[in-house]
From TrEMBL:
GO molecular function, one term: oxidoreductase activity, acting on the CH-CH group of donors, NAD or NADP as acceptor
Pfam families according to UniProt: ADH_N_2, ADH_zinc_N
InterPro entries from the UniProt entry: ADH-like_C, ADH_N_2, GroES-like_sf, MDR_fam, NAD(P)-bd_dom_sf
Native species: Dacryopinax primogenitus (strain DJM 731) (Brown rot fungus)
Protein's UniProt name: Alcohol dehydrogenase
Amino acid sequence: MAPVPNPRYLFLASPAGWPDLSKDFQYDDSRTIDPDTVELNGGFITKTQFLSVDPYMRGRMNAGTFMAWQPGEPWTGFGICEVLRSETPEFQKGDTIYGHLPFEHYTVHCIESAHANMFRVIKNTENIPLSVYLGVAGLPGKTGYYGLKAIGEPKAGESIYVSTAAGVVGTVVCQIAKEWGLRVLGSTGSDEKVKFLQEDVGIDAFNYKTSCVDEAIKDFGGLDIYWDNVGAEMLDTALINMNHRGRIVICGHIAEYNVPDEKKRGIKHTWEMVYKEIRMQGLYVFSYEEQYADEFYATVPKMVAEGKLKYTEDITVGLEHAGELLMSVLKGQNTGKAILQMYP
Ligand SMILES: NC(=O)c1ccc[n+]([C@@H]2O[C@H](COP(=O)([O-])OP(=O)(O)OC[C@H]3O[C@@H](n4cnc5c(N)ncnc54)[C@H](OP(=O)(O)O)[C@@H]3O)[C@@H](O)[C@H]2O)c1
């Protein structure tokens, strides 16, 4: 094969607040590669099919943070790729792999980087769409499943409130909590998403932009578990509505990601934690991978195939649209799991 273009999507500079598409990122289509002849040096070459675009990526633009993106280097994130050629028995030509990938069409990997980037061959015996392995059956799904189990410690009959409930993490938490016998309340930012939660997911839900959050929670009743995707006032309001010995899972703080002034962040009602003996714990999904991954892959893709786990996807075609897609996620404009499909 003659050399083919190998475009990539670069991170250029750390934004102070909201990213600026014209300055902070760049689509670079200047490189080429010959996938048939490029040296593998004992490794393997993959062609990327889907890449996940997630809110946590905003944090990776801040210099000095954990796994910070490096200026001049491609974005990285979880994706699905196909092995084109391999010189290692661990990955065979034709395998579909899930793992942490650079935002580019073709990548040559060594075996050490494949391990470091959590590569896992996806057998897909359930025959679900591959993109779902980036959503409810991927990192966001694992976040919901692992966090609910390990930190939420749910018991049938208990109540849970989930913020950003129509997002990928949120829908997994809501549906698994329901499956495990909990009463579930979710909030989201549009009436269309409220309808999805009520009719498709089958839970109580409200629009936090047009309703009083405190009243909506009080109408539902005290909370045994609060799943926090948002931080800020939402977390404060949940805190004053927790039951005795309630558990708060701190999963994300999307309302604060683009607020550069630290004085404008934070919560006030931590005193509630003292006399109610509330436990608030941060969730870091990767800490539970070894413990729960096999259980997760045996459970969740099957639930999807059987129609027991509903999901929505927002698929954008073309690597050049990565920045716009991330902005829509950060602004709450996506209508499902945000996914970049590399080719039409
Ligand atoms: N702890 C971990 O290990 C871990 C791992 C993965 C993800 N996370 C976190 O989990 C959370 C959910 O992730 P996801 O992938 O499922 O994302 P997601 O729900 O698709 O995130 C986008 C949604 O966030 C909401 N949102 C945006 N700006 C907001 C604001 N200012 N205030 C309140 N809500 C806002 C919007 O939904 P609405 O219309 O409902 O507002 C938007 O559609 C994120 O905070 C993410 O960082 C944590």
